Amino acid sequence: TAAAGPPLLLLGAPGSGKTALLFAAALEAAGEGQGPVLFLTRRPLQSLPRGTGTTLDPMRLQKIRFQYPPSTRELFRLLCSAHEAPGPAPSLLLLDGLEEYLAEDPELQEAAYLIALLLDTAAHFSHRLGPGRDCGLMVALQTQEEADSGDYFPAQCWLQPDAPGPGEHGLRACLDPGGLGPRTEWWVTFRSDGEMMIAPWPTQAGDPSSGKGSSSGGQR
Questions:
Q1: What's the rounded Cα separation, in Å, for the pair 160 and 158?
Q2: Which residues pair with 39 in a beta bridge?
Q3: How many CB atoms lie within 10 A of CB 22?
Q4: Is the pLDDT at 7 greater than 80, yes or no?
Q5: pLDDT, tens only, 55-109
Q6: Which of 16, 86, 196, 197 could pair with 218 in a Cys bridge, judged by C-beta atoms 3.0 to 4.6 Å apart?
């Protein structure tokens, strides 16, 4: 429930599952009936991410508005004109591949301006949604190490790929809610049929498969 917490920075190496989790969050938010979802990414998805096969309700997909700003300048233009866009305000704003936009102009000032625009756009959508409703913000950044985002993204989720078993793809997710709660770790498994299972990371050393959860213990 991204809209219930602070802006979230999703961190991980290439292939760690960042896009899959963003897309899963988009599907979840689209099914909550709170408003459309705005998904920003530099280029169209070539295939649907893992873990979405059982939740591809056409009605949910229709509520996800994909936008493909090809450059930092176009992303700036899109965010600056968001208040002019017709229709209901989004309940969730997602940006995939922040590092690609930052690579065009690595100056700290430009990065701060882009992040400030994202936060301001989410705040504007929250205002349009009305009292008691907020627009969540999730941004994915490719990196090999945890980032220091200062006050911009107090909440961070760090992803590390792992191999849970034959025919499965999994990752370890460490969520730091930025002072709003304890740091928690989760085991995310993408099964061969596309189903995504989430369970608490095992607290004791040993085989990671011991904490994967099942259809009765994990969360889908």
A1: 7
A2: 66, 94
A3: 24
A4: yes
A5: 567 788 889 999 999 999 999 999 999 888 888 899 999 999 999 998 887 777 8
A6: 197
Task: Give me the residue label for tokens 């930092």.
Answer: 72
Distance CA 78, CA 93 (A): 13
Domains and CATH numbers, the chain: 8-155 (3.40.50.300)
Residue type at 167 in one-letter notation: G
Distance CA 137, CA 155 (A): 11
What is the number of other CB atoms lying within 10 angstroms of the CB of residue 102? 17
Question: Quick check: 38 and 90 in contact, CB under 8 A?
Answer: yes
Tokens found for residue 129: 């949604």
In this structure, what DSSP letter does residue 211 have? G
**Phi then psi dihedrals of residue 128, to 5 deg:** -70, -30
Beta carbons of 63 and 176 less than 8 angstroms apart? no
Query: How many angstroms separate the first and last alpha carbons of the chain?
Result: 14
Residue spans of alpha helices (H) in the chain: 18-30, 58-62, 72-80, 98-104, 108-129
At 173 the three-state DSSP class reads strand
Residue 190 token pair:
């993408």
